[in-house]
Fold this protein.
Amino acid sequence: MKESLILALFSVLVLSLQAQESNSAYRVLQLPTSAHALAVGGENITMNDDDPALVQHNPALLTNVTPNRLGLSFMSLGELGTWSGAQYVRAFGDRHTAAAFAQYRGYGEMTARDEQGTEMGTFSAKDIIAGIGYGYVLSDNWAGGANLKVVHESLGEFSAAALAVDVGLNYYNENEGLSLSMVLRNAGAQFKSFNGRNEFVRHNLQLGVSKELLHVPLRFHATLTDLTRWSKSDYIQADEKPLSTARLLTNHLVLGVDWMPSDLITLSAGYNFRRAYELSTLGGAHGAGFSLGAGLTFSRVKIDLAWSKQHVAASSIMGTLSFAL
């Protein structure tokens, strides 16, 4: 019954957001927050890890995180600046889990110029996200969750802000090594604009599955993203080669795999079809779409590192550290 109510809520939210197909701002909300998630393609919503950073990928996964656990994340975006984040998870009873999180992205110093190109000094740009999350154990295999977050963007003396929510549902059968999830991420609206122009927060409806083989140390991941966007105009495409129907379909797919040679070590790889196509179209074909990572899991500490090409101008290196307090 509880699972049916959450699915009904998903339907209402998605229908209310379908009219918001416009140029969207607040791109910082689309960045991965977990190095392990980045390593398997950047969009994973089904990893039942002891990782607080997964709260913004799927708040239902909070119920798998050790209580009183702190997570720290950092990502270098090369010339595009840096990103950092922190998360704290605490349990309340057997079924309730809560989290608080914050993120900061700095773009560095930029040169201000007038209409004639004359330098007028420098300014900085940055994004800040702060939010809370909640996860609830619905039954032995089902969990649900939600996040509420505020994002603030500043560009010199100008600023903008928006409010967004995530709603997630996860089915996890540990004996079968099977995890299934549905998530609606970044459903929200702007409440303060740079120049009076209304910008939309880009929501993302996702479905995902992870399957660990029972007798081989491999776990496979598949995630479907942007399931409310099926128009070719929603995606970057080359002028000389319009987006094909097959390419439109694969743009929604992200694949990943984990190899776990021991309980201590995890080696990961992923492929994001949309990122590969769009970066190749923009001239950044080398390594586009691929991601790699490695993780170490100890009794109280978890460390993950990942590499991915997130932008045509630079690759991304991300690290996540979490530990029990």
